UniProtKB/TrEMBL annotation:
GO terms for biological process: response to antibiotic. CDD domains: ABC_DR_subfamily_A (cd03230). It is a peripheral membrane protein. The lineage of its organism: Bacteria, Bacillati, Actinomycetota, Actinomycetes, Kitasatosporales. Its main location: membrane. This is ABC-2 type transport system ATP-binding protein. It is found in: Cell membrane. The keyword Nucleotide-binding applies. Keywords: Antibiotic resistance, ATP-binding, Nucleotide-binding, Transport. It comes from the Bacteria. It comes from Streptomyces atratus.
């Protein structure tokens, strides 16, 4: 069976006898979110190209999770619009939700299901036939090294295993755009490498990955496109080379962009270390 996402990708490429320009994966205009006195997202504009591996980076409290939550329809913005694959997230939620996969922060999963049951349930919710769900679940469990734990309850999974089963659930329906909030947190290096390979293969097929991270080396080695957030605003967005500019690394560019370049690294903590 061909998924909606697959059909759309093929249609766009096939019309007019050549590769058509797809709409951006995500288009955000004038997006605001306040929590009481706290402004979490302060009127951002973003245009994330389709078919890229995109990193959303920023210090703690920058507004990354709030932004991803609004982009994926989990949190209603105070103001502004979001389109995913050309569809408005708040006016056309069903169209958008059928095209996206989400690994949200603080993953809430059905804890009393086993890993395999969770995938079976997710697949049926996504409207896939049972036999296809079985096939895809077996392959994903195998690739993500969860086959041995497939009958264990999710409540008994480790942090990294939870990330992996959450990722499998987000990929099961072959979405057009995949949103991942800190996908590598708590994941061991072997599993991280596997996840990388799965995601790289997925973007090579024309799909888009948008993920948030604090780990600049990871973003630098994985992403071809980066958006830098700080204090609820977008400080830079563009290709990795554009955002890095003259800086020697993304880490250094990031420190400059978020205004942390001149921090003293704890000079005021003169009591810490030394003689006791
Ligand atoms: N539900 C909420 N109620 C009140 N304040 C919130 C809420 N969610 C987020 N905030 C505030 O909004 C700001 C942005 O938070 P957000 O979680 O989006 O940042 P982040 O970039 O994802 O941070 P981190 O990297 O630490 O996860 C922070 O100051 C946070 O305290």
């Amino acid at each position: 069976m061909q998924d909606r996402a697959e059909t759309d990708r093929a249609t766009r490429a096939g019309e007019a006898g050549g590769p058509a320009t797809p709409p951006p994966a995500v288009r955000v205009q004038g997006l605001w979110k306040r929590f009481g006195e706290q402004t979490a997202v302060a009127g951002i504009d973003l245009q994330l190209p389709a078919g890229k591996f995109i990193g959303l980076v920023g210090p703690n409290g920058a507004g990354k999770t709030t932004t991803l939550s609004m982009v994926t329809g989990l949190l209603r913005p105070d103001q502004g619009t979001v389109e995913v694959a050309g569809h408005d997230v708040w006016r056309d939620p069903v169209e958008v939700k059928s095209r996206i996969g989400v690994l949200p922060e603080g993953l809430r999963l059905f804890e009393r299901l086993s890993g395999r049951e969770l995938l079976a349930y997710t697949g049926r919710l996504r409207g896939l036939p049972g036999s296809e769900v079985d096939k895809r679940a077996t392959q994903l469990l195998d690739v993500l090294d969860l086959a041995g734990a497939q009958h264990k309850l999710v409540v008994d999974y480790s942090t990294g295993m939870r990330k992996k089963i959450g990722l499998a659930a987000a990929l099961l329906h072959n979405p057009e755009v995949l949103f991942l909030d800190e996908p590598f947190e708590g994941v061991d290096p072997v599993s991280a490498q596997t996840i990388r390979e799965v995601l790289e293969r997925y973007t090579r097929s024309g799909a888009t990955v948008v993920f948030s991270s604090h780990v600049m080396e990871l973003v630098e080695s994985l992403c071809d496109w980066v958006a830098v957030m700080a204090a609820g605003t977008i400080r830079a967005q563009g290709t990795l080379a554009e955002v890095r500019g003259e800086a020697s690394s993304l880490q250094n560019a990031f420190l400059e962009l978020v205004g942390a370049g001149s921090r003293t690294g704890g000079d005021s903590l003169d009591w810490l270390g030394g003689k006791r």
